[in-house]
Structure formats: structure tokens, C-alpha cells
């Protein structure tokens, strides 16, 4: 194990902006902290058909080296193509720690990679740090739907973790860091094509992206139906925010399941989070408790959500929201 | 193709819908003890079972439910038979307690179990377990068996000897065609497990329920844990809530707006 050195971040690019993804930037800053603690190098690796820009940006964000596996055949994620690249790189450079943002793609990729590297992975970590001797990575994650926090250590190498990517993870500002870009050989004969994407439907997004919104207005079972969500939509629009939901409204079909905030939905940490008609189950709280300010509106004064909120109203949202929206609108207009 | 063989992997967990107060966290013993919370099937595993039953309805075949552990509750796992699985295999051994087995160890036991059963065409697991929330076992198992894995499935059918999977994306949906045998991890969008009638439960009593131990799988050495639990703590994140009060909803709504404005929240 002693021969393992350095920290490797498996990076992703923002496919819309063609830049280093915000989540990867956050993980690069985590990786930098670990590498500095170890006095070792921080590297990043990018796979795709056009990933030179994000690779160079990762160096400006603090990486000492960025590996690049660029090929037309790699434009779409296929584990059978991506895994050999990462396996070979890991075997060559023998990193001590391998990190990635906890995105949909990495949730699919990292367990496979961990198995191939004969190690394990801790997914959805909210914190990682080195132990006192600097030898092992201590990985903290919520378990039991957020009812407990577990700290894990891995006895095999490398130590692998995916890091939760809420917006609260502050990305290191780009500095004038120097580093090198290393191109990896890509074996293009590898393709034996065990799976193929034949169709993809992207849901149209109106307004701000949930994970990036500064304000999130979420509704729960207490909203009562599709119509009620129109009030929340209105509030979200006025505040330039996004609409969210706890699990029941999604399961009941009142809103798209893509709006789900929680352990198995989106993880958010906006400036202000409105929880309307949400009782506050752990699995929902886990997805939003790092919000800077939480406002709860619920008929039930004993609802769990009030324990986690900064401001609360005990009452029927149907009666309270319209005057709140009216007054908020006025106050915001006065500001301008 | 011969008769379709589907294996569904099930895990028994403390009811994730239980109130927060039901979870007692013993930091010294590094254990979570749910008080008065009965175990249930992990909800995503129920989604996986439902998808298995739909596949059988459409294409015929046999659904085998498998669970690995120690202290398995027959009452909880028998639900798989009541819902429609054709047989249930409880792979139970003191050596398979979570104190000894991590995700990797569990996968080795599952892989042995599946080898003993004979290679299935489709293996289904939940996207992640409701207790550890790792999402590792399904993908590890596919790697261990050397088969293709498609994650976050909400639906599947068989077409021309391949499996066609509807896969949930963060911003939509994609259709993946994969070769078989294949492992799918199933997400909640697949839908809830069907309702179970008294008759279903009675019928389930006549279905085969097998008990296998470590020795039955030829497993005499339990793999070393790769993952160690160092600490367990209750999350500290309660806040002090300022309740806005007033004589009427109009007043309360207005007061909240002013308050958020004055406190520079909005």
C-alpha cells in the first residue's frame, strides 16, 4: 500500500457549457486539500471526445496534472470503454485516493471501477479527510436515510469515494496554477458493444435548474394535488427560483419525478429553501438540510420539518401563501 | 431461448419510513438500533421485484427471490412469494452478519448462490439499499459475474434476445439495448410492488422456500472486509425555528415577507 501516492479526481465536463463541471471543481478543491496534507500530487482525468478545455481548467483550479483520454468513440459514456482507460491509468500511476463527484454518471462508473481495482468505494460522502497518520482516508456519509452519519475507512487501495455535489461545496477559485496535460493512449479496438443507447428524451427545463437555483420552493403531500403546485410555481417564478418536491407528490404524479429533492432525488443547498406541506422525513431532509435558510409552512405544529427550519408558519398554505406572495412581490419591487 | 430465468436480490432493512425518534444510535457499539421498527423489504428491492413480475407476465419464465444475511425474517421475505415470486432462497449463516460481510463479501455470497442456481438471464436489484444507501452491490455483482449492468431501470422488456431498458436520467430518460445475461438496478420510478391479497399469502405457503448455509455454497472462508466502519454518530442539524404568528393568514403572510426582507434572506 505504501507505494500508492497522490490523489486522482475523475472529472466531468459541463456538457452545455463545454467547461469543467461545477461539481468537479468542488471535488478538485477537496482533492487539493488532501494532496496538500499528504504533500503529494493532485491529478485529474477526463474522458470524452472533446475534453481538453475542462482538463486545462482543472489545472488552473489546482491540479498538478491532467490526463486526457480523447477519442471520438468516447463521446458517449459506455462503461465498457471508460473502465479500461481508468483501470490502466490507476494501475500505472497507483493513486492513494480516487475521487469523483456523486453524479448520475459516477454512481454508475465508480462501483464498477472499484471492483476492477480490487478495492471498495464509499458513495455520496459529505466529508472526506485523512486520519491522524495521514495513511487512511476517513469517509463520512449519511446512512439509514440520514438518521445516522457513518465514517468509513477502506482497508484496500486505492481509497475511493464519490462526493456529494450540492452547491454548498465551494469550488476553489481559479488561480494561476501551473501543471501539465498528459494525453493517454486510447485503445479503440476495445469496443465489443454490450449495450447501446437507442433513444434519449430530455425533459424541457423551464427556468432555473433545481440543483443550481438560489431559491427552491418545494411542496409535499400536504399540497394536496396538481393545482396546489401552481401556487408554488408562482412563488418560485417571482423569486427566480426552482420548483421542488418531496417524494410523495412525485410518486402520486402531481409533479415530475425530476423535481424530487431527497436522498434518491436531487441534493440541493440553496440560499433559501421553502418547504410547504412537507412533514420532514429524513430522506427528504438529507437532500436539503444544508440550505442556508429554511422556511417551513405546515398545518401541523408538530411536523418534524419545524425542527430543521429557521422560519416557520403553522397554518394552511392556501391561506398564507397568497398574502405572502403579494407582499414579497411588493417588497422586491421597492428594492429595484 | 429456453424458459426465462429471473433472479431478484432482496435485502431486509429497518423501515425507512419510521420516525426519526425510532432510530437509536449507539456510537460506542457503532450500531443503529431501531426501536419498535419492524424490518421491511428495502423499498427499491420491492420495485425490482415488481419489475421482475412484469417481465414474467409478458415473457413467461420463473422468478427466484434471493436474500443473504443473518437473522433473516421469514415473515418479511415471504412477502416476495406472496407478491408472486416462484421460489425464495434464504442464504443465511451467522458468518453472513453485517459485522463480517461488507458489500464486497455480500456480492461473493450472491455470486456463489447464483452459480448454484444456474445462470439466470436477468438479475434485478434495487438501485441502493435503504439502510446503507451505497448503490454498490448490484454493480459489484455484475462485475463478479462478468455480465452487463444497466443502472436506474424503470422498465424493461425483451426484444430479439436482447433486453430493452428504460433508464432514468437526471433530466429525462434513455432507452438502452443490452445483451443478456444482464443485471439491472431498479429505481422507484418502476412503480410500487403490487397489492397482496389474503389468497396470495395463503398460496405462497405452498411455494418452495429453501435455506442455504455457507457450507451449502462451498464457502468455508469468509472474505475479509474491505470497508471498515470507524464511527457512527447522530447528525446534529436541528435549527432554532422562529414561528411567525398573527391574527389572520393575511397578517402572517405579510409578517413573513417583511421578516425575510429585514433579515436579508430575500
Automatic annotation (TrEMBL), chain B:
Q: According to the lineage, what is the superkingdom?
A: Bacteria
Region forming the signal peptide: none
Q: Which GO terms describe its molecular function?
A: electron transfer activity
Q: Which InterPro entries does this UniProt record tie to the protein?
A: ETF_a/b_N (IPR014730), ETF_b (IPR012255), ETF_beta_N (IPR033948), Rossmann-like_a/b/a_fold (IPR014729)
Q: Which UniProt keywords apply?
A: Electron transport, Transport
Q: Per its UniProt record, what Gene3D superfamilies does this chain match?
A: HUPs
Q: Where is the Electron transfer flavoprotein alpha/beta-subunit N-terminal domain?
A: 29-221
Enumerate the PANTHER family for this protein. ELECTRON TRANSFER FLAVOPROTEIN BETA-SUBUNIT, PROTEIN FIXA
* Full protein name: Electron transfer flavoprotein beta subunit/FixA family protein
Q: Which organism is it from?
A: Candidatus Abyssobacteria bacterium SURF_17
What does the organism's lineage look like at the top? Bacteria, Pseudomonadati, Candidatus Hydrogenedentota, Candidatus Abyssobacteria
Amino acid at each position: 500500500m505504501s507505494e500508492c501516492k497522490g490523489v486522482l479526481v475523475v472529472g466531468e465536463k459541463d456538457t452545455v457549457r463545454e467547461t469543467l463541471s461545477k461539481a468537479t471543481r468542488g471535488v478538485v478543491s477537496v482533492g487539493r486539500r488532501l494532496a496538500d496534507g499528504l504533500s503529494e500530487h493532485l491529478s485529474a482525468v477526463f474522458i470524452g471526445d472533446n475534453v481538453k478545455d475542462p482538463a486545462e481548467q482543472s489545472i488552473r483550479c489546482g491540479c498538478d496534472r491532467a490526463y486526457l483520454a480523447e477519442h471520438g468513440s468516447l463521446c458517449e459514456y459506455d462503461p465498457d470503454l471508460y473502465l479500461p482507460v481508468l483501470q490502466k491509468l490507476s494501475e500505472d500511476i497507483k493513486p492513494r485516493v480516487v475521487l469523483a463527484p456523486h453524479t448520475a454518471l459516477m454512481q454508475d462508473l465508480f462501483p464498477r471501477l472499484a471492483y476492477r481495482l480490487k478495492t471498495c468505494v464509499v458513495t455520496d460522502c459529505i466529508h472526506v479527510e485523512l486520519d491522524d497518520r495521514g495513511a487512511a482516508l476517513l469517509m463520512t456519509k449519511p446512512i439509514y436515510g440520514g438518521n445516522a452519519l457513518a465514517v468509513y475507512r477502506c482497508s484496500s487501495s486505492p481509497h475511493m469515494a464519490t462526493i456529494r455535489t450540492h452547491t454548498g461545496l465551494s469550488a476553489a477559485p481559479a488561480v494561476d496554477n501551473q501543471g501539465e496535460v498528459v494525453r493517454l493512449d486510447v485503445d479503440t479496438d476495445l469496443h465489443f458493444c454490450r449495450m447501446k443507447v437507442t433513444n434519449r428524451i430530455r425533459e424541457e427545463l423551464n427556468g432555473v435548474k433545481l440543483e443550481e437555483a438560489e431559491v427552491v420552493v418545494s411542496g409535499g403531500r400536504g399540497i394536496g394535488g396538481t393545482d396546489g403546485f401552481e401556487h408554488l410555481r408562482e412563488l418560485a417564478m417571482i423569486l427566480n427560483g426552482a420548483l421542488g418536491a418531496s417524494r410523495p407528490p412525485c410518486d402520486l404524479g402531481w409533479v415530475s419525478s425530476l423535481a424530487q429533492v431527497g436522498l434518491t432525488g436531487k441534493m440541493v443547498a440553496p440560499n433559501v429553501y421553502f418547504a410547504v406541506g412537507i412533514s420532514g422525513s429524513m430522506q427528504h431532509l438529507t437532500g436539503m438540510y444544508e440550505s442556508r435558510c429554511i422556511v417551513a409552512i405546515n398545518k401541523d405544529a408538530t411536523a418534524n420539518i419545524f425542527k430543521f427550519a429557521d422560519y416557520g408558519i403553522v397554518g394552511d398554505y392556501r391561506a398564507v401563501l397568497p398574502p405572502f406572495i403579494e407582499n414579497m412581490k411588493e417588497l422586491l419591487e421597492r428594492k429595484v | 431461448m429456453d424458459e426465462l430465468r429471473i433472479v431478484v436480490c432482496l435485502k431486509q432493512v429497518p423501515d425507512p419510513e419510521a420516525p426519526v425518534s425510532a432510530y437509536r444510535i449507539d456510537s460506542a457499539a457503532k450500531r443503529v438500533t431501531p426501536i419498535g421498527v419492524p424490518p421491511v423489504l428495502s423499498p427499491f428491492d420491492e420495485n425490482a421485484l415488481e419489475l421482475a413480475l412484469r417481465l414474467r407476465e409478458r415473457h413467461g419464465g420463473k422468478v427466484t427471490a434471493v436474500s443473504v444475511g443473518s437473522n433473516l425474517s421469514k415473515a418479511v421475505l415471504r412477502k416476495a412469494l406472496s407478491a408472486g415470486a416462484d421460489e425464495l432462497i434464504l442464504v443465511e449463516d451467522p458468518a453472513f452478519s453485517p459485522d463480517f460481510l461488507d458489500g464486497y463479501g455480500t456480492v461473493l455470497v450472491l455470486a456463489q448462490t447464483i452459480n448454484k442456481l444456474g445462470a439466470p438471464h436477468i438479475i434485478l436489484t434495487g438501485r441502493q439499499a435503504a439502510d446503507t444507501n451505497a448503490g454498490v452491490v448490484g454493480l459489484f455483482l455484475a462485475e463478479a459475474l462478468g455480465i452487463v449492468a444497466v443502472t436506474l431501470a424503470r422498465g424493461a422488456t425483451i426484444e430479439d434476445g436482447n433486453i430493452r431498458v428504460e433508464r432514468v436520467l437526471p433530466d429525462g430518460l434513455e432507452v438502452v439495448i443490452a445483451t443478456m445475461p444482464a443485471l439491472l438496478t431498479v429505481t422507484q420510478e418502476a412503480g410500487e410492488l403490487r397489492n397482496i391479497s389474503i389468497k396470495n399469502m395463503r398460496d405462497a405457503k405452498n411455494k418452495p422456500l429453501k435455506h442455504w448455509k455457507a457450507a451449502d455454497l462451498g464457502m468455508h472462508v469468509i472474505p475479509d472486509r474491505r470497508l471498515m466502519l470507524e464511527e457512527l454518530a447522530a447528525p446534529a442539524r436541528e435549527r432554532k425555528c422562529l414561528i411567525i404568528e398573527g391574527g389572520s393568514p393575511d397578517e402572517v403572510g405579510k409578517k413573513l415577507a417583511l421578516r425575510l426582507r429585514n433579515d436579508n434572506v430575500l
